[in-house]
Automatic annotation (TrEMBL):
Residues 210-232 are annotated as: Disordered. Residues 223-232 have a biased composition (Basic and acidic residues). This is Lipoprotein. PROSITE patterns: PROKAR_LIPOPROTEIN.
C-alpha cells in the first residue's frame, strides 16, 4: 500500500512538472504573440498617416525596420512600443529552451540598411531606402559621396603601412580602391561606404546595366610615401 501511494505521488509529481513546463512554454508563445500584435499595431498606425511637412517627422529605428513618427500620433505610438517591449522582455524571461532549442533567447537586432530620409510617396510618409529614390537623385548622392569617401583619411599621416587597409568602392562599373586605417571616425567611413553600396545597387536595378563583379587590376598593397598612404 505504501509503495502504491509512493508510486502515485511520483506519477502525480511528474504530471505536475510536465504541466508546469507546458504552461511555461505556452506563456512564452503567448507573450511573443501579444508582443508582435502591439508591434504591428504601432507600425500600422505609422504607415497609415497622411503626408505632413517633412521637418515635423522623426525616424524611429525598431529591431528590423525604420518607422516614420509624427507628433500627431506619437503618444499613441510610444505607448504601443512600450507595451511591445515590456511583453518582449517578459517573453525573454519566460523562455524555456527545449532539447534542440538555443540556450539563450535571441534578441539580436537585424542589421538595417541605410535610410535616405523621409519623403511623401503615394500620399503616405515613408522612410526612404535607396530604391525609393529617382535615378537622378541616386546619381547626385553618389557624386556627393564619392569625394567624401576618397578623401576621408587625407589628413591622417601614414607612418606605418601595415596599419592601413584597402577598400574598393564603385562608381558605375569603375573600381576605386581607397586606403583606410583605424581612427575614431572609422564607423562614419563605413557608414558612408554602405550608403554608396546601396545607392549603386539601386542604380544597377533601375538601369539594368551589368558590371563586372571583380576588379581585374586590384592594388597589390600600400606604402607610406611623403606621409601619405600610396596604393601600389
Amino acid at each position: 500500500m505504501v509503495k502504491t501511494n509512493l508510486l502515485f505521488c511520483y506519477l502525480l509529481g511528474l504530471i505536475t512538472l510536465f504541466s508546469a513546463c507546458s504552461k511555461d512554454d505556452g506563456k512564452y508563445d503567448e507573450l511573443i504573440r501579444l508582443a508582435d500584435v502591439k508591434l504591428q499595431e504601432a507600425i500600422k498606425l505609422a504607415e497609415n498617416q497622411p503626408c505632413k511637412p517633412v521637418e515635423e517627422w522623426r525616424i524611429d529605428t525598431l529591431s528590423y525596420r525604420y518607422v516614420p513618427v509624427h507628433p500627431s500620433f506619437e503618444k499613441e505610438y510610444n505607448a504601443l512600443i512600450k507595451e511591445y517591449r515590456n511583453l518582449a522582455e517578459q517573453a525573454s524571461k519566460a523562455y524555456k529552451p527545449g532539447k534542440h532549442d538555443p540556450i539563450a533567447y535571441n534578441t539580436t537586432p537585424v542589421i538595417l540598411p541605410p535610410n535616405f530620409g523621409l519623403r511623401c510617396k503615394e500620399g503616405k510618409m515613408i522612410v526612404a531606402s535607396a530604391f525609393d529614390l529617382e535615378l537622378t537623385e541616386i546619381d547626385q548622392k553618389i557624386e556627393n559621396l564619392l569625394p567624401q569617401i576618397r578623401d576621408f583619411f587625407k589628413d591622417v599621416p601614414c607612418t606605418d603601412a601595415s596599419k592601413w587597409n584597402i577598400l574598393t568602392i564603385r562608381k558605375d562599373c569603375e573600381f576605386i580602391p581607397v586606403a583606410y586605417t583605424e581612427t575614431r571616425e572609422l564607423g562614419l567611413f563605413f557608414k558612408k561606404t554602405e550608403q554608396l553600396n546601396h545607392l549603386n545597387y539601386a542604380r544597377y536595378h533601375k538601369t539594368g546595366k551589368e558590371c563586372p563583379t571583380q576588379n581585374p587590376n586590384p592594388p597589390k598593397g600600400i606604402i607610406c610615401k611623403d606621409g601619405h598612404p600610396t596604393l601600389q
